[in-house]
């Protein structure tokens, strides 16, 4: 079975404003878009080697994938997205061909962007191989992702050919990445996507509040203060649980709006996934 039909996704209509906070991430990605279409003459005034590979890293559920989607929507670049694991679920040789075809098509329709989500699944450390070697042995392989990784690195190394193509990747396990991937000229622009800080959490709660039936007792500032350490995904989970609780009350003939108590219970019941070890990571 071929997974090629999965590769060219239509960008979901996520916009920068849908992401609460993360201003420096948005700034870096906007710059990446501009750089990809900048003339070589201008680039040479500012860069020895303009960045072309961007790695979004940080704990799970904190808007890495969203940021890539917003970049695609807002830039209008032709968008190719692939999950690392999808490339491994192919027959031997097929994933390498898929990667080469991906870059080829991205070049054909440039300006464009390629997004490798969960890149750690194909770019985990090549255990048993010397990291000083830039060309991994081709005797490994079958399911290990080594050949896919080699193909990816080869594609990234052709600089001229990649003009007009932004290559973006995301991982929540940066320590697991093969260092070869992070060398200059490859994914050498590291963008940390942190857990939402207090203003970002307030923005996420406010976004949800604007769309839902909220009781006047809902205090967004306090919710933001009370959710230190929660990911954006978990905050959305808290809001979803509060919505269910309010709906049940409404269905039983009670107060229809989402109340502060619903959200507070949501916070108490929401498990936190982010641990200290997941922060920064490099
Ligand atoms: P993973 O590493 O697990 O793939 P991720 O960092 O790619 O996670 P996303 O998939 O972008 O995370 O985010 C998951 C969901 O969490 C989003 O669909 C969105 O609902 C919510 N979310 C996370 N961060 C934010 C944010 N800053 N503003 C609004 N929603 C957010």
TrEMBL record:
According to the UniProt entry, its GO molecular function terms are:
ATP binding; ATP hydrolysis activity
- On whether ATP-binding is a keyword of this UniProt record, the answer is yes
**One cellular component term from this protein's GO annotations in UniProt:** cytoplasm
Enumerate the UniProt keywords alphabetically.
ATP-binding, Hydrolase, Nucleotide-binding
Domain AAA+ ATPase, first and last residues per copy: 50-197
Keyword flag Hydrolase: yes
What name does UniProt use for this protein? P-loop containing nucleoside triphosphate hydrolase protein
Q: What is the lineage of its organism?
A: Eukaryota, Fungi, Dikarya, Ascomycota, Pezizomycotina
Q: Which residues of the full protein are shown?
A: 495 to 776 of 786
């Amino acid at each position: 079975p071929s997974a090629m039909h999965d590769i060219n996704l239509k960008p979901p209509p996520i916009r920068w404003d849908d992401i609460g906070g993360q201003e420096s991430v948005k700034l870096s990605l906007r710059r990446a878009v501009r750089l990809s279409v900048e003339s070589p003459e201008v680039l040479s005034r500012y860069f020895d080697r303009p960045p072309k590979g961007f790695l979004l890293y940080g704990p799970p559920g904190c808007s890495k994938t969203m940021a890539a989607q917003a970049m695609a929507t807002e830039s209008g670049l032709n968008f190719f997205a692939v999950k690392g694991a999808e490339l491994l679920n192919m027959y031997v040789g097929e994933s390498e061909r898929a990667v080469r075809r991906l870059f080829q098509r991205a070049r054909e329709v440039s300006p464009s962007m390629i997004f490798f989500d969960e890149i750690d699944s194909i770019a985990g450390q090549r255990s048993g191989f010397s990291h000083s070697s830039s060309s991994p042995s081709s005797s490994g392989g079958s399911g290990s992702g080594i050949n896919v990784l080699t193909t990816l690195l080869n594609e990234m190394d052709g600089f001229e050919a990649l003009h007009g193509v932004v290559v973006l990747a995301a991982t929540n396990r940066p320590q697991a990445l093969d260092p070869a991937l992070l060398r200059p000229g490859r994914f050498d622009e590291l963008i940390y996507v942190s857990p939402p800080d207090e203003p970002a959490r307030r923005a996420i709660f406010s976004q949800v509040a604007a769309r839902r039936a909220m009781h006047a007792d809902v205090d967004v500032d306090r919710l933001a203060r009370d959710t230190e350490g929660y990911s954006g995904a978990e905050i959305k989970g808290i809001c979803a649980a509060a919505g269910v609780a309010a709906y049940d009350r409404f269905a039983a003939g009670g107060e229809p709006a989402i109340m502060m108590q619903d959200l507070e219970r949501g916070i108490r019941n929401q498990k936190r996934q982010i641990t200290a070890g997941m922060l920064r990571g490099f």
